[in-house]
What does this fold into?
Amino acid sequence: MTATDWFRNQEWNAEIEKDFLAKLARSRTQSDQYLVIQALTICKTYPNVGLQLVERYFETKQGDFEDARALSARAYAYIALEDLASCVMTMKSILAIERERPLHKTTMYVDYPYLVAAKGLESEYQSALATLQERHADLIFPLDIFKWHAAFSFISAALKDKLNAKKHAGLALDAAQIKKSGFRFHQTLGLVGSEHQATVSKLRGIYA
It folds into this structure.
């Protein structure tokens, strides 16, 4: 185990929890960050653990710098638990924080509309479209561009806007073909992976 592995556990049990909390108690200035990193690491595979760690963060935090990332872990845990109502509420809380604190940015500006589009949450369509338009200038990585256009395409298709549905499907498919991120030392960072193949297939159907 390296010096940083203790707050990046991929598995979780009573022994791991005991060791993590013991080391967390000894940390002074970075305990907020360690809690959030561990919550983000484990929230999709052990969602209840992720939620517990987020609760601990908000109960013990020394500042608010990690609030948005802590809530991101909560949102991803809710997705894993298929609690979409709680997930959407949490995602909107993150977006509100980002409006108030522009330097505290996450990928929620694409993750929220993408979830809304993928799950067909009709009551959230207009809010999702507004979020996409509001944050368009923040797009950097191919994956974010892909999600942005895919969400716009799927929502447009659901609203019978065939022109925009096809246009954004094509742009999303273009983003999925990008093989280098454009960052000199991180060429594979933020690319569209095979886990999005089902979305790519659906986009091809819209674009055809």
